[in-house]
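Quick entry between incubations.
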Amino acid sequence: MKKDFSIVGKSVPRNDGKAKATGTATYTDDIKLPGMLHGKILRSPFPHARILNIDTSRAASLPGVKCVITGEDTPKIKYGNWRLFPDTQDEYPLAIDKVRFIGDEVAAVAAVDADTAEEALELIKVDYEELPGIFDIDSAIKEGAPVLHDYCPGNISVNRKIHYGDIEKAFAESDYVREDVFNVHAVSPAYLEPCAAVAQCDLDGRITLWTSTQVPYIVQCLLASTMGMRENDVRVIKPFVGGGFGGKMELRTWEFCAAFIAKKTGRPVKFTMTREEEFLAGRRRHAMKLYSKVGFKKDGTLTGKDLRIYLDGGGYNAMGPTATFLCGTFGAMLYRYPNYRFWGQHVYTNKPPASAMRGFGAPQSLFATESQMNIAAEELGIDPIELRIKNAQVTGDEIPDVATISSCGFIEALQKAAEMSGWKEKRYSPKPGQGIGIGCYSFISGGVFNWFNTQFPFSAAEVRVFDDGTAHLLTMAADIGQGCDTVLKQILAEELGLKMEDIRITSADTSTTPQADLGAWGSRLTMMNGNAVLDAAKKIKAQLFGAVSARQNLNVIHELGCKDGMVFPKSRPDRGIPFGEAVAMAQKANRGEPLVERGYYTPRDKGLVTPAFSFGAQISEVEVDKDTGVVRVKKFWTAHDCGTVINQMAVEGQLEGSIQMGLGYALSEQFVMEDGKTLNTNFLDYKMPNAMDVPPSEVAHIETYEPEGPMGAKEAGEGLAIPTAPAIADAVHHATGYRCKDLPITPEKILAGKKD
Amino acid sequence: MRLSHFDYYAPTTVADAISLLQSKPDAHVMAGGTDLLIKMRHAGLKLKTIISLKSISGLNTIAFDETKGLTIGATALLADVAIHPDILKYYPTVAQAARGTANVQVRNMGTVIGNLCNASPAADNAPTLLAMGAEVHIQGPSGKRTVPLDQFFKGPGMTALEPAEIVTAVHVPRLTPHSGTAYISLSARGQLDCSAVGVATMVTLKEKVCEDTRIFVGACGPTPIRVPKAETIVRGKELTDDLIDQAGVQASAEATPITDVRASADYREKMVAVLTRRVLSQARKRASE
Ligand SMILES: Cc1cc2nc3c(=O)[nH]c(=O)nc-3n(C[C@H](O)[C@H](O)[C@H](O)COP(=O)(O)OP(=O)(O)OC[C@H]3O[C@@H](n4cnc5c(N)ncnc54)[C@H](O)[C@@H]3O)c2cc1C
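Done. Structure below.
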């Protein structure tokens, strides 16, 4: 099924590379509009408190202050991404009655400059009645625990169960059953561009919002509903975005406040978060407590798994419901579990809300899976890679209620990673203080479950072609630095036989790009938007082919192709016509109408989870200082299957970024918290690895061809972020005898747990 | 947090800087500003006046003299100290500490003296200079004076400077023959990070006997602290591995670390023993080379 590609599969430089490298890229905070006001947000100093009274009068009379709002001024409409289940929508743009975490948004000020706005914040007087706070899962689910949301008396806001086969019977018939408890911690997406939004209101009352978001369409809809407006009276534009990693995939307070104040004052308003606000109150990856029980036959065959997960959700649901669903789905991926039971519960605590973050439940769930695989391998006396190969999912496997796996290169990835890393030698004849370990992953290529309850196709693309041989691609897909603008252009260029520079792209503007696109999350864009682009391109080709066939008087049996700027009958390439001329012919054949086509994609008949699965294996080699407990990762080897690699460089970039994030997740990043307060709110003390900390790495692309994907492609954005922590944990165990079950792996834990 | 509005002066002589400081009692001097501006922006320090030292000519001088030793001027950059050929040759640990401070950008702005005057207990440049017996040159309304560095630190953010006084330079004597120095610090992220704990030493050998030593521990007390009892264990004795181990244990007992966002007291205490051991054996090796 593989094709010869001209542009797909190459290392094509990114669309946005030059603009970012030269500093000319315009991010939201760079936008300046005439008369623009600057907004700041007043945040709760208490983790849990009732708001008794807010007095904004002194702030409002500070010279330069143009508007002060509290929840009372707003329409008081709750929002949340899970529109399909309105019960889950638990957040107001500004607190009504209660605050639920330190940093919860209480009021907003807009003034002539940011300093004045900030000064005004100090003049707002809020009377709070402090309430007892809960800061961990166990205390939140205890009888009689303080309740965060009246609608949810037990603090458990989402329950998700999966069950197939007979798990009890499976354990009874197992030769070896292993039970462990894992605790994984919260980390920050730490995107380099803090959130920002600029809103403008026209004289008809319509809003335009420029915002640093992954989900322009979702922001459009939810902003409209919280403002009490019609969706199409709100236009959301995504400028250049400096990363999101899941932290920018909801409507957020400042987006609402900017729009609301713009409407109220008639002046444009900008809000830009500080790094401290991001660390103090920004979205995080869920901390989870995982109880995992797995059974095996003596020969290593998996018999089943029973997985119980509590998610520490923080004060609001945010994207927690999806994480709760997905961590259960991920628990049954990668290996063949004939029997599986999952129960996930999303728990409210008085901490900043956790939400989507790269991997969306998988880094946590698969940390447990992969650690247990390594433990089981040791106890069964089977090599961890052999044990995996024995149980690996393969093409054609069905995950009950999820999907049939239509392409899978997992076993090849395991074999390749073992070979590249010199696994056998290093695992079985280790040098003192050194260790080698493995972690694997499988991930979804976009989600199927329509929690947003959109009536639109999941993704859409419009392609316009012109007689000068150029094309214009319009799509709502949000390039947030992951590179989808480039990849989508590549797919279009490949299909139409054009060059990258022949294509202009306009993306992520909800009023000019075709409706709709659910956004940049769940590694969905290459798959879903790529398919929409292909669909549009194929329709364009049909028109061009009609015109060319007529002009050349071709026998109807001829198939036509597009390549190198020509449209030609495949069996008679010499009778080709330049692309632009073919466009002119098609237009002339159609009363001069411009040649424009729209394409769409919505996964159908693909179960409720995802249309396609990626797979991969990663091996890491570490050196542990036995006196200080300091871990140095020496090297990573990764072999992964993302279907067709559309852009080598882009995939390698995803891998490098994933390793950097995984390294932080495994070893150094964590929130230092005291009674709900985050103490390390800067990069000095939030220990994100920097470029110098990232070890060298080698990669092998195990290319498969995914029939559902555009040109055989599937995901490469999030899956790669999963294996690093378990691989390092395994390598640390190999080096020291300390098996980490509560991330991060700190020197202190290693010193306490090592076996000499 | 909001940066308060402030007046900015850039005098061209030390005398001018001092008289400005006298006339504006709330003024702070600034070298690279990599500590000062951050305190203003993030720690609520509200200043009305900043006096930059960077326009004072000659203050950034790094001078080495075979007999007098090394003088690092107040505005000499961390980046310059890190690669200065004489420092690399005669004071390798001083260069190493500067190179291990922060990152490229900060080293291109920040100074060794700023690091000392900021008086953080974790300051990366302090332990080595303390171990080497450095002294600071101070100039103020009542003239010039010299203070040994081990009497300069008074507490977190507090120094022996009197109002309107400025540190003009730090002076480091030459290492005596058969002496070696070492500094090792630990932090939670790679090598380039604020230290959670650090230990520096200078060791002078006579044959195999440790004729003298000074050991200083960073980030384990209100200032970088000396561990005299650990020094006593090795001073005047043959510097064996066993004795070095004992000194480590003793240093750990003398340190008074706290738990904070960077490490726990317990871990710091353990690491003082490990690092003391390591710096002593490194310094011993260098001293016998
Ligand atoms: C990202 C980052 C990372 C950092 N990492 C480290 C690290 O790894 N290790 C470390 O030790 N530090 C670190 N620092 C702290 C800081 O960079 C250093 O302390 C630096 O050496 C300060 O020098 P400066 O010239 O910028 O000082 P300034 O900020 O200019 O001054 C610091 C203080 O000293 C006073 N002062 C300065 N010069 C004089 C003088 N001549 N006379 C009297 N008072 C004076 C100032 O008034 C001020 O109070 C880091 C800082 C940042 C921002």
